[in-house]
Design brief:
This is NETR protein. The protein has 154 residues and is an alpha+beta fold. It has two helices and ten strands, in the order E-E-E-H-E-E-E-E-E-E-E-H. It folds into two domains: 89 residues, Mac-2 Binding Protein (Roll), CATH 3.10.250; 43 residues, Roll (Mac-2 Binding Protein), CATH 3.10.250.
Length: 154
């Protein structure tokens, strides 16, 4: 329910997205658009199988802050040079990739929220089915370094 081939509905038909320029920032937008809060991961080369019908988007280049793919830089609808072997996929897995330990307890999946860029924001953790914040009591650069590393930042 949180991963698969990405398909979009446009002009009365469903179609796929070509994986040219497809990266984790695009996946982040797809996960957000679907209301999924897991770790966004872009997958290429029809990782979840080849679609059928039209390839509706190509050269999608999101910054990662957009609310939907419509707001991202992309080719015109239907303008593409791809085959279904290049269908784009996404995983928004809430259970892998960003497990961290904070304060000697399992804090679950971590994300940054409310920042001006993907690399900054309020630290939030997913635990027991809900997102919550982290209290800053005892918060140091060491904790920030752990979160940054777990989110793939240097």
């Amino acid at each position: 329910s949180f991963e698969g081939r990405v398909e979009v509905y446009h002009d009365g038909k469903w179609g796929t997205i070509c994986d040219d320029q497809w990266d984790d920032r695009d996946a982040e937008v797809v996960c957000r658009q679907l209301g999924l809060s897991g770790t966004p991961k872009a997958l290429s080369w029809a990782h979840y199988g080849q679609g059928s019908g039209p390839i509706l988007l190509d050269e999608v280049q999101c910054s990662g802050n957009e609310l939907s793919l419509d707001q991202c830089k992309k080719s015109d609808w239907g303008q593409q040079n791809c085959d279904h072997i290049e269908d784009a996929g996404v995983s928004c897995d809430p259970f892998t990739g960003t497990e961290v330990q904070l304060c000697q307890s399992d804090a679950g999946t971590v994300r940054l929220a409310g920042g001006r860029s993907p690399g900054e924001g309020r630290v939030e953790v997913y635990y027991n089915g809900d997102w919550g914040t982290v209290c800053d009591d005892g918060w140091t650069d060491l904790g920030a370094q752990v979160v940054c590393r777990q989110l793939g930042f240097r």
